[in-house]
């Protein structure tokens, strides 16, 4: 199976533990999970931890007590404790943008106080939550009426990245708790198809658009927002209709006003909330309208419970720290390039996509906090699909492929939709998959079963493939809040070890700028003379030849 990681340099802080871990990995290399379980009958219970209603079983990883000891030492050497405290107290941990990263303040209970850069932030958060709650209740009850006096039946969130993925994921995840007399749609892609298909069967007199954009400058969102506005005004025949059919969520009041949305109908947040960390802010307005303010508060409470655990629990029993450190082990020492997120719950179908942005936009970095080039692996690639669909698609590679793919299985003990024995069947599949990945099936077992010799190699499962299992009682708003916070803090833990900034995203800039520059070359009948490489040039020419030009 996959080659071992090339252990290049280690983060400056933590070098001693890193070297010890590299040496330890060589010693442990030949040890199979079968052996680790056989020699420790209590391993399954021992290597587990629980917080905020989430049980983490990390025993099916290629680790022993020494691995854990060294990983915890690495965390201490890298100053993880101080970095956690710095984040929670509002230090400017987002160094390149000189900002705090205080998503935890979004879920702090009313009455707590936190002064950041001279401003008390928790009362501001509570004020916005209260305004959101009043608005959400008005929409849900029918008190908020459209331009013609009809009640709102459709809510369309227009946003992209963190202003879309969190809201869609949360809506899908908590659909069970949602108002079923309201339709929710999410438009993100600048591809006109997204807007067209999301609105084709909607009645504009009953439709409310939420324009969600932290900066209110994102071209995809503004393009869709203008399309929505044109659709609404054309349908209602009156510019004044915008007031009743558009609200905004943003940090940019000027941009919102310029677009023509009354800032009375704007819900604000702050530069210390990163886009991919914003689903608990006003960016969650569509979630609150869907599930109601009380359930939204429960979502925040779940996140807060995990925040408190991350901040206070000893590292050896700290879920986000353990999840983060195990990811470092798999990625930097075992050479795994990816992590599969496998929720055994249909409501979590967008959870892998949500985590992709959270983890990859945060930790896809190549320089340290001080800008020095990194010589070790950083963020793994996150991907996944809900079980059991993935089993009939890519699990073959997980079991018998040549690549090492650590998996996070996520499941719930109670279903929200009982249907015969189907929930037991679903969870049997979850447990069976992690068992099969870890223990496999040997050639001896196959021969003993009478499998013909020519098929033995094909049917052998070598096992020893790592996974975590996250189990909660039931998918509630609080459980989702805790799960989201768990992954946010696991991402932060990894960033602290790698000594990178998980809160900026400079890597998205170049493509954006080039697209803006290139637009006139695709739009104007006489193309401006711009130098490109031969590949880009040929593609532009072909596009211009085959595109449909507007008729005047
Ligand atoms: O993809 C870059 C990014 O800045 C994300 O970090 C962010 O979530 C997304 O664009 C949307 O940004 P905004 O909310 O400002 O429209």
Can you walk through the features of this model?
The model is unreliable at 1-7 (pLDDT under 50). α1 runs antiparallel to α4 (65-77), α14 crosses α20 (477-498) and α15 (351-363) runs parallel beside α20. This protein has helices at 15-28, 33-38, 43-46, 65-77, 80-88, 122-141, 165-173, 192-199, 219-236, 242-245, 253-259, 285-291, 293-312, 319-333, 351-363, 395-400, 422-439, 443-448, 453-459, 477-498, 509-523, 534-546; strands spanning 48-51, 54-57, 115-116, 119-120, 154-158, 183-187, 207-212, 246-250, 266-268, 338-343, 381-383, 407-414, 467-474. The protein contains 22 helices and 13 strands. By secondary structure, it is of the alpha/beta class. The chain has a six-stranded mixed beta sheet with strand order 1-2-13-12-10-11, sandwiched between helices. The termini are far apart. A hairpin with a 2-residue loop joins β1 (48-51) and β2.
Please provide a brief summary of the model.
The chain has helices spanning 15-28, 33-38, 43-46, 65-77, 80-88, 122-141, 165-173, 192-199, 219-236, 242-245, 253-259, 285-291, 293-312, 319-333, 351-363, 395-400, 422-439, 443-448, 453-459, 477-498, 509-523, 534-546; strands at 48-51, 54-57, 115-116, 119-120, 154-158, 183-187, 207-212, 246-250, 266-268, 338-343, 381-383, 407-414, 467-474.
């Amino acid at each position: 199976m996959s080659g071992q990681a090339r252990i290049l340099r280690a983060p400056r802080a933590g070098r001693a533990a890193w070297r010890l871990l590299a040496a330890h990995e060589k010693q442990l290399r030949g040890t199979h999970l079968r052996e680790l379980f056989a020699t420790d009958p209590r391993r399954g219970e021992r290597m587990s931890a629980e917080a905020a209603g989430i049980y983490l079983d990390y025993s099916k990883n290629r680790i022993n007590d020494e691995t854990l000891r060294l990983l915890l030492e690495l965390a201490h050497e890298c100053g993880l404790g101080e970095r956690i405290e710095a984040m929670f107290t509002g230090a400017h941990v987002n160094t390149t943008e000189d900002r705090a990263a205080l998503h935890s303040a979004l879920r702090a209970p009313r009455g707590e106080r936190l002064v950041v850069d001279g401003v008390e932030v928790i009362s501001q958060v509570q004020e916005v939550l209260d305004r959101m709650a009043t608005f959400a209740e008005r929409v849900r009850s029918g008190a908020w009426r459209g331009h013609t006096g009809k009640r709102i039946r459709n809510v369309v969130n227009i946003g992209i990245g963190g202003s879309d993925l969190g809201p869609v994921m949360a809506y899908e995840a908590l659909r069970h708790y949602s108002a079923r007399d309201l339709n929710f749609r999410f438009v993100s892609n600048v591809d006109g198809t997204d807007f067209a298909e999301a609105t084709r069967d909607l009645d504009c007199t009953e439709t409310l658009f939420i324009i969600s954009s932290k900066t209110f400058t994102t071209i995809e969102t503004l393009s869709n927002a203008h399309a929505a506005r044109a659709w609404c005004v054309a349908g209602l025949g009156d510019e004044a209709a915008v007031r009743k059919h558009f609200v905004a969520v943003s940090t940019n009041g000027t941009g919102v006003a310029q677009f023509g949305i009354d800032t009375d109908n704007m819900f604000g947040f702050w530069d210390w909330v990163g886009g991919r960390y914003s689903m608990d802010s006003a960016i969650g307005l569509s979630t609150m309208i869907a599930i109601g303010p009380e359930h939204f508060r429960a979502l925040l409470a779940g996140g807060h419970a995990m925040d408190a655990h991350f901040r206070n629990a000893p590292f050896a029993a700290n879920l986000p720290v353990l999840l983060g450190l195990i990811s470092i082990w798999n990625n930097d020492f075992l050479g795994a390039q990816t992590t599969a997120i496998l929720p055994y719950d249909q409501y979590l179908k967008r959870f892998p996509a949500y985590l992709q942005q959270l983890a990859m936009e945060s930790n896809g970095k190549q320089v340290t906090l001080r800008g020095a080039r990194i010589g070790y692996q950083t963020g793994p690639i996150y991907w996944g699909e809900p079980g059991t669909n993935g089993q009939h698609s890519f699990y073959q590679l997980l079991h018998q492929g040549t690549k090492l793919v650590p998996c996070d299985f996520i499941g719930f003990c109670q279903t929200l939709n009982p249907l015969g024995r189907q929930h037991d069947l679903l969870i049997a599949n979850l447990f069976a998959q992690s068992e099969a990945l870890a223990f496999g099936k040997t050639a001896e077992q196959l021969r003993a079963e009478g499998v013909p010799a020519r098929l033995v190699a094909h049917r052998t499962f070598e096992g020893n493939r790592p996974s975590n299992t996250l189990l909660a009682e039931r998918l509630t708003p609080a459980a989702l809040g805790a799960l989201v916070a768990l992954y946010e803090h696991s991402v932060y833990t990894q960033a602290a070890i790698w000594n990178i900034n998980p809160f900026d995203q400079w890597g998205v800039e170049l493509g954006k700028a080039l697209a803006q520059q290139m637009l006139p070359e695709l739009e104007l009948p006489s193309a401006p003379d711009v130098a490109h490489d031969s590949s880009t040039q040929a593609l532009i020419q072909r596009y211009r030849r085959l595109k449909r030009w507007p008729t005047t």
